[in-house]
């Protein structure tokens, strides 16, 4: 009996420490549980609000015009291409059309998939005619260039692509980049990115580019000769990174600065020598761009700098059968 009581007394400190440890752990476990419940409640509230907004619970529904089928670029809209549907007011795009009659006769500037709401940004200005001229950007001109499968990137160039234009001279064996980041308006006679057979590649004999007025003159000047042929380089979707300040500094550090030319040091002016035979006397005249520089004969040499001095020093002598020999 005494042993059992002693054992119970010995176990009491251990039970007390265990109970104290459990009591100290309760705040550490309750606080993260409260934070987790609060975050979960906030996420549920946000999800419910988004669903209600998508269903139009806050603003109702609106009637908009959508495409009834796929419509190609530069196509005049007809009544059969347009349908109406109701969508939540919060999802209605800006500048969307609600009256189908306002769309009859308008021309598209891009390819539209079925069921897409029609906005004013997808259409050419009122009165535009269908075809290529409906999609030519303002201030640009459409110019076609002859290409081959090799020079047109094996047919991977499609309308809407961005290309760099170079000219290659077969006679001189040189190449020159003349235009960069040019938009392709058409490939052959197709304005669509996808052909009728569903392929995105096509090999044609011509590509139409949208160029500014000064770029048209640059292209014409570099393709005037028959030996100069156009080669197109397809650009990717990512923009080219610009040259940073440090790259320019290190590049310039390795290059010796160019020596400034002295304006007083000019190249000598070209001179022209004329020899005139007066009977048995040979007269030598030296000219440059300013006039007579030197005049000499078999009897001696006289300096004639400038036009006035040359006229004063010149003497008229009768000539018999004069002849001129230009060196």
Count of distinct structural domains = 4
Global mean pLDDT? 75
Distance between the termini: 145 Å
Structural class computed from helices and strand pairing: alpha+beta
**Count of DSSP E strands?**
12
Spatial order of the strands forming the largest sheet: 3-6-5-4-7
Quick one: overall form?
A: elongated
Taking the sheet with the most strands, its summary is: 5 strands, antiparallel
- Count of discrete alpha- or pi-helical segments spanning 4 or more residues: 4
- Proportion in helices: 10-25%
Explained architecture:
By secondary structure, this protein is an alpha+beta fold. It has 4 domains: 14-54; 61-122, Type Iii Antifreeze Protein Isoform Hplc 12; 138-234, no CATH class; 272-326, no CATH class. It has helices at residues 2-54, 213-222, 245-253, 306-313, and strands spanning 61-67, 82-88, 140-146, 162-169, 174-187, 206-212, 228-234, 272-278, 281-288, 291-297, 300-303, 324-326. The protein has a 5-stranded antiparallel sheet with strand order 3-6-5-4-7, covered by helices on one side. It has a 5-stranded antiparallel sheet with strand order 11-10-9-8-12. The longest helix has 53 residues, at 2-54. The protein is elongated and about 140 Å long. The chain starts with a helix and ends with a strand. Mean pLDDT is 75; it is low at 1-11 and 300-327.
């Amino acid at each position: 009996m005494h042993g059992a009581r002693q054992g119970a007394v010995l176990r009491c400190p251990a039970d007390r420490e265990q109970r104290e440890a459990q009591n100290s752990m309760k705040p550490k476990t309750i606080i993260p549980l409260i934070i987790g419940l609060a975050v979960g409640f906030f996420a549920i509230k946000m999800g419910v609000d988004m669903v209600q907004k998508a269903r139009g619970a806050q603003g109702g529904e609106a009637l908009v015009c959508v495409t009834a089928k796929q419509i190609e670029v530069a196509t005049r809209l007809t009544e059969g291409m347009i349908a109406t549907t109701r969508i939540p007011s919060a999802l209605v795009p800006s500048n969307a059309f609600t009256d189908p009659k306002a769309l009859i006769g308008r021309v598209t500037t891009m390819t539209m998939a079925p069921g897409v709401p029609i906005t004013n940004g997808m259409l050419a200005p009122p009165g535009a005619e269908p075809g290529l001229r409906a999609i030519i950007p303002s201030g640009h001109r459409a110019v076609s260039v002859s290409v081959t499968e090799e020079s047109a990137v094996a047919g991977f160039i499609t309308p809407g692509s961005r290309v760099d234009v170079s000219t290659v001279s077969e006679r001189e064996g040189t190449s020159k980049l003349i235009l960069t980041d040019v938009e392709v308006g058409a490939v052959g006679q197709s304005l669509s990115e996808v052909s009728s057979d569903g392929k995105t590649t096509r090999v044609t004999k011509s590509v139409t580019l949208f160029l500014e007025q000064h770029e048209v003159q640059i292209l014409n000047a570099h393709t005037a000769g028959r030996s100069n042929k156009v080669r197109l380089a397809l650009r990717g979707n990512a923009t080219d990174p610009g040259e940073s300040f440090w790259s320019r500094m290190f590049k310039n550090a390795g290059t010796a600065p160019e020596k400034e030319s002295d304006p007083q040091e000019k190249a000598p002016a070209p001179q022209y020598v004329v020899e005139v035979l007066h009977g048995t006397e040979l007269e030598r005249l030296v000219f440059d761009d300013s006039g007579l520089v030197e005049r000499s004969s078999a009897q001696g040499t006289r300096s004639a700098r400038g036009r006035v001095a040359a006229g004063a020093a010149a003497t008229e002598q009768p000539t018999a059968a004069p002849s001129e020999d230009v060196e």
